[in-house]
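dumping this here so i dont lose it
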């Protein structure tokens, strides 16, 4: 691959200026910079996705609460209170 000297770089710069114009050149450079930034962020995201994540600890088991006696649960079907509960 040939080395680029200063004269070749100047010729390339002049050709680019003639093709794009002096007014559109800064906009093109800005767009190119944004594209490179987006590309860099996306490749970093892909690299981060490839690395295994830290293991997530298993959740602790949840114990069922002890049953609570409901008031009036011992009453009969017709709503009367049993003799043992009367005071």
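and the seq i came up w/
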């Amino acid at each position: 691959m040939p080395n680029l000297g200063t004269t070749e770089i100047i010729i390339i710069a002049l050709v680019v200026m003639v093709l794009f114009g002096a007014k559109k050149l800064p906009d093109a450079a800005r767009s190119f910079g944004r594209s490179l930034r987006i590309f860099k962020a996306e490749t970093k995201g892909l690299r981060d996705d490839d690395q295994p994540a830290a293991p997530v600890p298993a959740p602790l088991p949840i114990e069922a609460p002890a049953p609570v006696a409901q008031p009036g649960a011992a009453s009969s079907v017709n709503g009367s209170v049993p003799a043992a509960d009367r005071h």
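The chain has a mean pLDDT of 77.
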